[in-house]
Amino acid sequence: MKVRKAVIPVAGLGTRFLPASKAIPKEMLTIVDRPTIQYIVEEVVASGIEEVILITSEGKSAIENHFDYNFHLDTVLTEKKKYRLAEEMRHLSNLIDVVSVRQKKPLGLGHAIWTARNVVGKEPFVVLLGDDLVLSEQPCTKQMLDLFNEVQESVVAVQQVPMDETYLYGIVEGKHVKERVIKVDRMVEKPAPGTTKSDMAIIGRYILQPDIFDMLDKTTPGHGGEIQLTDALLALSNKRGMYAFEFDGTRFDAGDKLGYLKAIIAFALRHPDICENFSDHLKEVAAQL
Ligand code: G1P
Questions:
Q1: Which terminus of the chain, N or C, has less C-beta within 10 A?
Q2: Residues 88-113 pLDDT 10s
Q3: Ligand 1 atom 9: the closest Cα is on which residue?
């Protein structure tokens, strides 16, 4: 079955970015010339997905506005003969259909995904977490869809992390069945140090069979007292197969101050308007260190 829908949870308060995220959603913080959420939606579009389902909360309307048509802006830009910019803004509003669903209580990532059950229906779907930006030749989601089309079972993106950082992630244990592909045996959300031998961390990209909603129905609060997606994934992997996929690309944790700055540098060095001057500037800065 073709994967047509992407769920993007954006309901979180963004406490790691206060005060920047006090009055604007953290997903609207800029990397070079676009908000982080735009990179995520562009990855979705480039992977052939047809609809985005945002899981929102109060104070997140700027995200919906960002992907909406702005008649006033269009009129003003056209009057000022800024035709290229006007066209760019229209293109942005036509990128993809966006619907949103409110997560009424902050009960965790698993609960956020469960909130989308009626809008997703009985078809496989993608989940992308806005904090994880992936720079790659082929979009990370597209790479995962290629594997999904082969195995027809849920796929989670993973990346090797240092052993002393495993407590920050959902960790996957299993056996390689081929290069870059692991058949999942066990999953644990943010394991206490020393409780797993695996260093395969879940990165915020998932392709899920709709059975995940039945699993989420039954998931009780786990790590941090929240309904964890990883716990429901484990239940799903026990019921039917699940694969972890080591994608090709560089992942940035844009939800963390240092990760966010690293992402800005990486994306700026690839931005056609500024890459050369920015690269020269970085060299000057490095020479002064
Ligand atoms: C979430 C997931 C975790 C995953 C991580 C990737 O955690 O619960 O399994 O490894 O995203 O970024 P969070 O970082 O939201 O606490």
A1: C
A2: 999 999 999 999 999 999 999 999 99
A3: 170
Nearest-angstrom CA–CA distance, 129 and 17: 16
Contact 26, 17 (CB under 8 A): yes
Q: How many CB atoms lie within 10 A of CB 36?
A: 23
Burial annotation 7-24 (CB, 10 A radius, 16+ → b, else e):
bbbbbbebeebeeebeeb
**Cα(75)–Cα(72) distance, integer angstroms:** 5
Atom 14 of ligand 1, nearest CA residue = 169
Report the separation in Å between the CA atom of 214 and the middle of ligand 1, taken as the mean of its atom positions.
21
Pocket test for ligand 1, best of 40, 107, 111, 131 (most atoms within 8 A of CB): 131
For helices 71-79 and 83-93, what crossing angle results, to 10°? 160
3-state SS class at 189? strand
pLDDT tens digits, 222-262: 999 999 999 999 999 999 999 999 999 999 999 999 999 99
Contact 7, 125 (CB under 8 A): yes
Residue having the nearest C-alpha atom to atom 8 of ligand 1: 170
Token match 């692991």: residue?
Answer: 182
Whole-number Å distance, alpha carbon 239 to ligand 1 midpoint, is 22
Domain layout of the chain by residue ranges: 5-278
Q: Which residues pair with 173 in a beta bridge?
A: 186
Q: 149 CA distance to ligand 1 centroid (A)?
A: 25
How many angstroms from the chain centroid is the CA of residue 175?
25
Nearest CA to ligand 1 atom 2: 170
